[in-house]
Every structure is written in C-alpha cells, then in structure tokens.
Design brief:
Layout lengths: L1 E6 L7 H17 L4 E3 L17 H17 L4 E8 L8 E9 L2 E7 L23 E4 L2 E7 L19 H6 L5 E6 L7 H16 L3 E5 L1 E4 L2 E4 L3 E3 L5 E4 L6 E6 L14 H19 L5 E4 L4 H14 L4 E5 L7 H14 L2 E4 L3 H15 L6 H22 L2 E4 L3 H6 L12 E2 L6 H11 L8 H5 L19 H13 L4 H8 L3 H13 L1 H5 L27
Parallel strand pairs: 1-2, 2-3, 7-8, 8-9, 15-16, 15-18, 16-17, 18-19
Antiparallel strand pairs: 1-14, 3-4, 4-5, 6-7, 9-12, 10-11, 12-13
Helix pairs in contact: 1-2, 5-6, 6-11, 8-9, 13-15, 14-15
Amino acid sequence: MKIALAQFNPTVGDFAGNSARILSLAEKARQRGADLAVFSELCLCGYLPQDLLERPSFIDRNHLELKQLAAKLPLPSIVGYAGRVKNGTGKSIANKAALICSGRVVFEQSKMLLPTYDVFDESRYFQPASKQFAYGFGKEQLGITICEDVWNDKKFWAECRYDRDPVTELIGQGITVLLNISASPYTIDKRALRLEMLQSIAMNQHRPIVYVNQVGGDDSLIFDGASMALTAEGRIAAQALAFEEDLVLFDTVTGEGEIHAQPHEEIAYAYRALITGTQDYVRKCGFKKVLVGLSGGIDSSVVASIAVDALGAGNVLGVSMPGPYSSEGSKADAKALAQNLGIELVTLPIGDVFDAYQQALEPAFASRPNDVTEENIQARIRGNYLMAISNKFGSMVLSTGNKSELAVGYCTLYGDMAGGLAVISDVPKLMVYELAKWINRERELIPRSSIEKVPSAELRPNQKDEDSLPPYDVLDRILKAYIEDLHSPQEIADHYGFDLHLVRDIALLVDRTEYKRKQAAPGLKITSRAFGFGRPFPIAQRFIP
C-alpha cells in the first residue's frame, strides 16, 4: 500500500479553507498513485480550538463539513475532526480520526489518551476512547492512533502518564501498520525525542509507523510538521519538510519513501519556528504589516530580522525613538539594521515629550529625585508612539522583550511590553545572541556592534543590565532550572555553586512579576515551559521558594 503523508497548515474555524486544502492534497496524492492519504489531528477544524469546542454550532460544522468532504474526496483518506459520541456519562464529543472511503465514513477511532499538562487540557472537552480497534484496509490491518496515544510506551519512558497503552492494545489485534495523526507543538530538542520514541515503538513492536503532524502556527503554538514514516527496523523511510506544507509517499511493501531535507542545526530549526509562528499569527489575525521599535540593541534587531523573513521587508516598518540617554552608536545601529534589512525606518525622538511629562508630573512628584519611574515613562512614551502608528495604519506591533527580561520583570507595562505579539518572549537572552549569529551567517545583517555592545536599556546615564541583574550566563541557567525544570533555589545553588541568596532573589522576582506577564502580549512558545496559558501561576500568593 502506498500511503501519502499529507501535512498542511489549518486555521482554527476555517472549515472551508481547511477542507479545500485537504481536497487539494488528496487529489495530488491520487495523481501520484497513493492508495491512502493521512492528514493530521483535528485538521478539519484546526488545532487547538479550545472553548470553541463547547459551542454546539462548532461541532455541527465539524459534522457537516466532514459529510461534504467525504462526498468529494478522490481517494480514501484519514481526517481528524471533533465529533459527537453517545455516552450515558462524560463528555459529548471526542477527538476523532475518520477513515473516509467511497464517499462515506467507514470507520472512526477516538483518541484514548487525553493530555492535561503544559498547554493541553483535552479532558476538559473530550470523552476518551474506551477501546482501540484495528481496521482492515486492502492487504493491511490499520491501527489508528491520535497524537498522545503513542506517547506512553513503557519500554521508552521511565514513568508512564497513563495506565493504558493504545499501541500495545492494537498490536494485540494484529495490526500490520501503525498510523498516528498528530498536532504536536514544537519545542527545542523535541524532534530528537520524538524520533527516538517512534523508533523505539517501531523496533520493539516490529511494525512500520506512519506519523503525520500538523504544520504552522496557532496563537502561541508552533507546529513543525516533519511528518515521517519509519520501517519496522526504525529506519526513516519518508520525511516531510519542517515548517512547510508538504506531501510525501511511503510504500508499506517496499519500505521505501520520499525523504525531504531538514535543518540540521537546532538553532536553525528554532529560527524557522519563530518565522513560522510570526507569519501565521500576523496573517491569521488579519494583519499584513508589522512595526518594530528599533533601539539599536540585539533584541529588537533579531525581532526585526524574523519579521522580514516571515512577512517580507515591504511589510515591516522600523521605528527609532531615541531618548535623552540613547547613545549615538545605538541610533546608528538602528539605522544600519534598517538599511541592511531593506525596511523603512521612521525616527521619532521622545526627548520633548519626556520633558513635558516631567513638567506635568512635577506637582504630583513634589520634587522627589528621579528613579525607575522616569525610566518607565520613557518606555511608555515609546509604547504610545508604536500603538499610535499601529492604530493609524493598521499594522501589528511586535514587542521585543526576551524571556530572561520577562521572567524577572525587567520590562515596562504599557511600554516595551506593548504590542500584539511578543516574538522572542520564550527566547532566553543567550539564545538571542545565538539567533543573531545565525542571522548573520552569510552576511552582516545585524550590525556587529549591536551584538558586541554591553546590554543596556539606555534609560539613565551609563546604564547596564548588570546593574540590576546578574550576568546573563548566570541568570539564564537559574531561570531554566527554576522555570522549566522546576528545581528549588537550594537545588539550583547546590548544582551550579551559585550563591543561595542570589538564586532565591531571582526566584522571587520570577514569582512576584507574574502580574506583568498576565498583561503581556501573546508569545511564541519554543521551550518546554513558556510563560502564558501553559504555565498558570497565581498572582496573589505568598509562597516563598
């Protein structure tokens, strides 16, 4: 049997558009001699639909579109959708895979393992399958699983999340091919883990595996695609592109298929993820153009570079907003970056407005000395400038704060946090430097001085980030251990040999600035634990780690 791995970029709720892409890829698969096309999880309605699943009309559309799609599909196909189930208790819908043949749905399998960690909360919406069923198709016995259903192999994981293993249950029914339709979000280093896990299943169960993943961005989540087919020996026999729509064939008889190249370096993979997330968030939200405040620093330079690769230079506006403490070097670097990227640059000094603010607030401040208040005023003036341009021209503001800053509150509400998308809010500071070097791999786009200069917000004379924070090579290790690995300050201090008081102070900063992050623009998730809806922490709390 020739199976087509049909990987595409759905939009949540765009039933007509998603159906059109399914039909187009199915026809392409038919023309290339495929016997079966396999699509990704919930591809008909888009993933994650979240509380749209609680609207009866949304589920009605799933059923209606599936019926209409079935009548048009040019070859047998497996399509993911949200469908009703008839149970005496529990949820009324399930996350389903429908096998469509000869104009109708001939078989369905519901998802059994419903994840409730990180960004997932599927048991909120879905009824889990009570049983797995094999299905005879041609000369093969198909075992259809959905995403999490293959992430519970007791021979691979030291600890399993679930009591049941759908794969083992299907193997017991004599399946000859294991199929998995997924919407598996990208995180750094996940592709290596995913491959190792699928290879373990293939080799231990002596069955070929066809894994079809969603591609594209959905709000904060980014899906890398990279769909693949593995032989029973664990060899990659077919591989789709990463971060692009694609279709590749796999022959279950010969064990051969098409392999499309992947980025090798993890930093290249991460950069492609950020481009995909930015492009899809902006366009799926109905915008065409973006603007970025260019300070001459590395963070805004990286964000502007991502925006150009995602949307094209003609759709990116750079805004330089020099203040009373902006260095001549930073102003020159912002101008050089804009020229190198080929984007328009508008310069709007904030000095006069800042002076006016200080004069207006003088009666209320009662001649108190300058402090962080005046620093924040400068950031908020810039935020107002950006949002005014956004309102006037209908462009989305991309905020430029990185994960290290956002973690400890080294950012200003309604200032540099203003915007529609926080592109690098899940990128630690040291990784920002790695991205800059990757961007400059062929020629200098980001000025070298932007990379080499000492990090500074330039909101007071001779200001440096290290005046308020430890060096980033120390800070980033503490933050990863505390936020992503959930280690205690004592464990972190013992492991790295850091001063315990320093680690505790950083941990307290992380916890006490949750109120800022709750008001931040959505960010693109690329690490195992990003700020946002996948990390729900309370604001009003008194737990001290």
